[in-house]
Specification:
Helix content is 43%, strand content 14%. By secondary structure, the chain is α/β, with parallel strands linked by helices. The strands form two sheets. A six-stranded mixed sheet has the order 1-2-10-7-8-9, with helices on both faces. Strand 3, helix 4 (91-103) and strand 4 form a beta-alpha-beta unit. Helix 3 packs across helix 7 (162-168), helix 4 (91-103) runs parallel beside helix 5 and helix 7 crosses helix 9 (194-208). The structure holds ligand F0G. Ligand F0G binds next to helix 4, helix 9 and helix 13. Ligand F0G binds at residues 63, 88-92, 159, 189-195, 244-245, 291, 293-294, 321-322.
Length: 354
């Protein structure tokens, strides 16, 4: 089974020579990737930066996970897998469920009870995954999943799976392809720390292939209540409104710290207030609706701009990792009030103050 025609534009076909695939790899694709790199002139002017937003929410299941999942599921199928499993704060499960359905294989999802945004859960259950919620957090769910794959013939599709990172590194390729060079800074939210690691790998691979002549400084941001890499120790009970990055013991923490260190970047934290403020700002000034965890990248840029990290006019890319529609409850709780009015022309005009 291969990609079924030119309109599929699978990420694997576009970047085949940089990916660990062969003619024998069945390509399971939903036409992921090729997401816009949107300039953000109003916010950029405010911050004195040449600011861009990488809109990963426009992937087929609404998050960057699809880049990794097309590889993980395709390679799993090539190796004979008949079932995939993941622990997830939501987006990985939505993506795994979608790609598994496309591949015609079973998908098992273990999520932390009560902490998954509504849109993500809706996706997993509708794509037909078997969803179990555990009375614990993501880190505990991931421990259980690691135990299961040791004993049973189920393919792990969390970002511990190296194929996930292979797919996700293409986000870096696309940024260089659109800008014609690497940015000065790449700002990215950090949860389990797979994505920052993947981007760093991608920029370096492109540098070595002569596709760019520099790499960006990698600046990663955790939520203050779930910031093990900033504190230097695991967080037992992580808490944040940005449930996607509510993770206390990131699987790829060491690699994230290495990416920050080797690139002369940093990993810092932003508070829930800073996250929600950036979330509302990017929606109200640039027409871009991302989920709270994604806004951690912009919140971090705003914080670091205040602290003097950037030079005027630096090119900065914020990776907006997931779509705002994933988490309608947070949006409604933090948005403008809806005003109730009778179905009467004069009342409506009156209420609007026109
Ligand atoms: N942004 C969003 C929207 C995410 O869903 C995640 C991770 C991240 C950022 C952080 O990426 O883990 O590679 O550092 N979500 C995972 C999940 C954990 O289960 O969906 P990371």
């Amino acid at each position: 089974m291969s990609s079924s025609g030119p309109r599929d534009r699978s990420l694997i076909e576009r970047y085949r020579k940089f990916l660990p695939v062969s003619d024998a790899t069945p390509v399971i694709t939903l036409a992921e990737g090729s997401t816009p790199l949107l300039s953000a002139p109003r916010l950029g002017e405010r911050l004195g930066l040449n600011l861009f937003l990488k809109l990963e929410g426009l992937n087929p299941t609404g998050s960057f996970k699809d880049r990794g999942m097309t590889l993980a599921v395709s390679k799993g199928l090539e190796d004979g897998a008949r079932a995939v499993i993941c622990a997830s704060t939501g987006n990985t499960s939505a993506s795994a469920a979608a790609y598994a359905s496309r591949a015609g294989i079973r998908c098992i999802v273990i999520i932390p009870e009560g902490k998954i945004a509504a849109g993500k859960l809706a996706q997993a259950v509708t794509h037909g995954a078997q969803v179990l919620s555990v009375a614990g957090n993501f880190d505990q769910a991931l421990d259980i999943v690691r135990g299961i794959v040791e004993k049973y013939p189920v393919q792990l599709v969390n970002s511990i799976n190296p194929y996930r990172l292979e797919g996700q590194k293409t986000g870096a390729f696309e940024i260089v392809d659109s800008l014609g060079k690497a940015p000065d800074f790449l700002a990215i939210p950090v949860g389990n720390a797979g994505n920052i690691t993947a981007y760093w790998n991608g920029f370096n691979e492109y540098l070595n292939a002569g596709e760019c002549d520099s790499v960006p400084r990698m600046i990663g941001f955790q939520a203050a209540g779930a910031a093990p890499l900033v504190l230097g120790r695991p967080v037992k009970n992580p808490e944040t409104i940005a449930t996607a990055i509510r993770i206390g013991n990131p699987a790829r923490g060491d690699q994230a710290l290495a990416a920050a260190g080797d690139s002369r970047g940093l990993i810092d934290s932003v508070t829930d207030e800073e996250i929600i403020s950036a979330y509302k700002l990017v929606a109200s000034t640039e027409g871009t609706f991302c989920e709270p965890a994604s806004a951690a990248s912009l919140a971090g840029v705003i914080k670091k701009q205040r602290e003097g990290l950037f030079n005027e006019g630096d090119t900065v890319v914020c990776v907006l990792t997931g779509h705002g529609l994933k988490d309608p409850d947070t949006a409604i709780d933090n948005g403008a009030k809806v005003v109730r009015v009778d179905a009467d022309f004069d009342r409506v005009v009156d209420t609007l103050g026109l």
